[in-house]
Amino acid sequence: MKKTEVKEMKTIDASGMALGRVASTVAMSLMGKTKATFERNKYSGFPVKVINASKLRITAKKLDEIFHTRYSGMRGGLRVLKGTETAEKKGLKELIKLATFQMLPDNKLRRVMMKHLTIED
User: Fold this and answer.
1) Beta strands 117-119 and 78-82: pairing type?
2) Is 92 within 8 Å of 56 (Cβ atoms)?
3) Where are the domains positioned within the chain?
């Protein structure tokens, strides 16, 4: 018989929380650092679902201070975007996703961890 592993899903309510607090709790859960069976070289975390992303507590001043980059792959294709542009075009879900992505370790497991993140308004 094959052993099927049932993964529990962690749900985080983002209403009234700051962007960095949400992103850090999501990153810790995706890495598996909240479990006793944490292994640095394997994906040992569990799926995370963020709800109420549109009710995130973030000020207009903070949105102006946030910057992130987008690269098209072409020469001169590096764009620096403000948080206000991203929030208008793609919503606060994208800001949570980008902040979590930056908090995860920069290795081959980063994409695997990000696949287990779902964000809902």
Assistant:
1) unpaired
2) yes
3) 10-58+91-119
Cα separation, 50 vs 40, whole angstroms = 24
Give me the CATH topology for the region 10-58+91-119: Ribosomal Protein L13p; Chain: A; (3.90.1180)
Q: In the sheet that 117-119 helps form, which strands lie side by side, from edge to edge?
A: 10-13, 48-51, 117-119
Where b means 16+ CB within 10 Å and e means fewer, 78-117 reads eeeeebeebbeeeebbbbbbbbbbebbeeeebeeebeebb
pLDDT tens for each residue of 32-43 = 999 999 999 999
In the numeric block, the tokens 């370790």 are attached to 105
Query: Per-residue pLDDT tens for 108-121?
Result: 999 999 999 999 98
Q: What is the mean pLDDT of residues 48-57?
A: 96
